[in-house]
Amino acid sequence: MIYLVVKTAITAIIIVVVSEVARRSAGLGALLASLPLVALLSMIWLWRDTGDTARMASYSQATFWYVLPSLPMFLLIPVLLKRGFAF
């Protein structure tokens, strides 16, 4: 149970830090958010929990393919916001 709380706390702290940095500097916040911190942490937790190389490889490959379709969103959101669409 303590392990789950620690994992949750570390992950939450990263999200809070990124959002606080982004409030002060959009560019620096974006840089931190674009780092694969969550994916890397997930891989660390997965490896510690399972030690399964096949599962790690599958997770890594799936993460790559699921990130690609989300990339256009980061181009579309600024365009929509500048045209008056609400977030």
Description:
The structure is a single chain. With 87 residues, the chain is mainly alpha-helical. It has helices at residues 2-24, 26-34, 37-50, 53-82. The longest helix has 30 residues, at 53-82. The mean pLDDT is 90.
Features:
87 residues; 4 helices; mainly alpha; flat
Shape, please?
Answer: flat
Report how far the terminal alpha carbons are from each other.
Answer: 37 Å
Oligomer: single chain
Structural class by helix and strand composition: mainly alpha
Overall residue-averaged pLDDT value: 90
Short description:
With 87 residues, this protein is mainly α. It contains four helices and no strands. Helix 1 (2-24) packs antiparallel against helix 2 (26-34).
Q: How are the secondary structure elements laid out?
A:
Blueprint: H1 2-24, H2 26-34, H3 37-50, H4 53-82
Helix pairs in contact: 1-2, 3-4
